[in-house]
């Protein structure tokens, strides 16, 4: 049997080893899950909802343990682990409240003996390849509505959040979800690859553009529903009439929360030239106040970098920015180990010739660029292949809306950032992906509409 070693990225220690799948075991799990799906669909929706309600109660009961597990394998500061688990509860509540209405068969025509109806049936067997940065959020966005709508789920946690994925499975089983209806698939990229080869009805992926593109290529000819939630290079523009200190404090948090490892982290900041200096100095002051250290400490704000290879990406962006004339204001280096550590890093005088302003950093590092006004800000915000989120800080609502209407992004923010709501669809434009999760659309996405043409005999 293959083994997967789980390490703590904050100190490099081996936490444990778990059994990992291989191609044969993935295939067997897919067969089991497919066979179990019709039985799960036959379970009344009220009982499927009761299972998820009990799962929610399990999360609440074990919140401290679950937070500690997530912190140990991802390096996420413990307070943020708790925040994620508490945030999950609101998402579960939303799905439980909305799912009934999404599954009601609609009669769209009834005249002269002819009736037309739209029925919402589950996709069938859904595969979910998930990320490590918010494993409860990005996993729960998929498997909770998928299970509620009557699908079976093959869930592959990232190898960097495997213990969390196994905890999810245990809580789902304790809550009454049958062991063949939700099955974890454990291992690294090659196990994800094996998952793609199974007979599945939907593939829901959260991760990098590079992996997403490979998955799209592999599944393209297979006519499998494909949903990809990928990376971003999310910009924010601070107008001349914004409060520079308030904007800086909010955006420093948006850039560095979860050690900058959020899909919707603020990754580029444009500031009007008239308040640029005030903004930059407030931003640096805020970042200097962020406590870096042991993720299990209550006052830690910057934790470990979860994946060691990301350190080289950050090094390269820093070196490139420096070589092209950016001004390093704070940080700019790895911090001593053991474990994977990077100092919170702020550059001013950046431009779009630099990788720092073009490619996802996915770490606690940010560039702040001076702009002359709205037109330049919009042009720069749209100068990207990504389109996940974008924001504007100004007291002027009409101006913010006019600006954000011109920006190519799935979510836009006025005077806020790095925010996800269960009530709103989460989607990316361009290389940030296809499809969506959350909102009522994020329930429907696990169903397909079946058209009924019914002529009565009389
Ligand atoms: P990766 O693309 O490296 O991995 C994502 C998942 O794919 C992991 O489970 C990984 O397994 C698996 N995988 C790797 N190779 C293959 C393959 N060849 N075939 C099938 N599966 C494979 O991304 P990260 O986990 O590093 O996540 C970070 C990225 O996710 C960032 O770009 C971030 O922006 C994005 N993201 C986007 C979100 C959104 O909502 N748009 C939300 C959260 C993150 P393993 O880890 O075991 O190698």
Helix and strand topology:
Elements: E1 2-7, E2 14-20, H1 23-42, H2 45-61, H3 63-74, H4 78-103, E3 106-111, E4 114-122, E5 125-129, H5 135-148, E6 152-156, H6 162-174, E7 182-184, H7 189-196, E8 202-206, H8 209-219, E9 225-229, E10 234-238, H9 244-256, E11 266-272, H10 276-288, H11 310-323, E12 327-330, E13 345-348, E14 365-371, H12 374-381, E15 386-387, E16 389-393, H13 397-405, E17 411-414, E18 426-427, E19 429-430, E20 433-434, E21 436-437, H14 441-444, E22 447-455
Parallel strand pairs: 5-6, 5-8, 6-7, 8-9, 10-11, 10-16, 11-14, 13-14, 16-17
Antiparallel strand pairs: 1-2, 3-4, 4-22, 9-20, 12-13, 15-19, 18-21
Bound molecules: NADPH dihydro-nicotinamide-adenine-dinucleotide phosphate.
Residues 129-134, 138, 156, 158-160, 188-189, 192-193, 196, 206-208, 211, 214-215, 229-232, 263, 307, 360, 362, 388, 426, 428, 433 line the site of NADPH dihydro-nicotinamide-adenine-dinucleotide phosphate.
């Amino acid at each position: 049997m293959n083994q997967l070693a789980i390490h703590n990225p904050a100190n490099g220690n081996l936490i444990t080893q778990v059994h990992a799948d291989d191609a044969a075991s993935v295939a067997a799990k897919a067969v089991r899950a497919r066979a179990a799906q019709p039985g799960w669909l036959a379970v009344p929706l009220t009982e499927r909802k009761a299972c998820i309600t009990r799962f929610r109660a399990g999360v609440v009961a074990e919140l401290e343990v679950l937070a500690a597990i997530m912190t140990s394998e991802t390096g996420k500061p413990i307070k943020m682990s708790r925040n994620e688990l508490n945030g999950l509860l609101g998402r579960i509540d939303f799905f439980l409240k909305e799912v009934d209405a999404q599954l009601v068969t609609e009669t769209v025509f009834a005249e002269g003996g002819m009736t037309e109806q739209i029925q919402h049936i589950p996709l069938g067997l859904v595969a979910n390849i998930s990320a490590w940065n918010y494993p409860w959020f990005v996993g729960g966005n998929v498997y909770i509505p998928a299970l509620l709508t009557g699908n079976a789920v093959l869930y592959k946690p990232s190898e960097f959040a495997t213990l969390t994925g196994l905890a999810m499975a245990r809580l789902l089983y304790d809550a009454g979800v049958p062991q063949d209806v939700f099955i974890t698939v454990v291992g690294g990229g090659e196990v994800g690859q094996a998952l793609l080869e199974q007979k599945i009805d939907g593939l829901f992926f959260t991760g990098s553009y590079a992996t997403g593109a490979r998955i799209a290529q592999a599944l393209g000819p297979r006519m499998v529903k494909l949903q990809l939630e990928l990376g971003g290079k999310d910009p924010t523009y601070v107008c001349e009439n914004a409060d520079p200190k308030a904007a800086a404090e909010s955006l420093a948090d948006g850039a560095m929360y979860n050690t900058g490892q959020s899909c919707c982290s603020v990754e580029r900041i444009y500031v009007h030239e008239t308040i640029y200096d005030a903004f930059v100095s407030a931003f640096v002051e805020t970042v200097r106040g962020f406590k870096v250290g042991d993720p299990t400490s209550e006052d830690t704000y910057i934790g470990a970098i979860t994946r060691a290879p990301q350190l080289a990406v950050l090094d390269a962006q820093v070196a490139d920015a420096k070589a092209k004339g950016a001004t390093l204001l704070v940080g700019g280096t790895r911090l001593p180990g053991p474990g994977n550590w990077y100092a919170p890093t702020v550059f001013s005088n950046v431009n779009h010739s630099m990788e720092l302003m073009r490619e996802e950093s996915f770490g606690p590092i940010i560039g702040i660029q001076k702009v002359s006004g709205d037109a330049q800000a919009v042009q720069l915000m749209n100068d990207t292949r990504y389109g996940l989120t974008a924001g504007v800080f100004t007291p002027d609502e009409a101006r913010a809306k006019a600006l954000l209407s011109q920006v190519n992004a799935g979510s836009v923010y006025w005077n806020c950032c790095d925010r996800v709501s269960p009530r709103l669809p989460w989607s990316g434009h361009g290389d940030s992906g296809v499809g969506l999760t959350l909102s009522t659309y994020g329930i429907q996405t696990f169903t397909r509409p079946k058209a009924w043409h019914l002529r009565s005999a009389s």
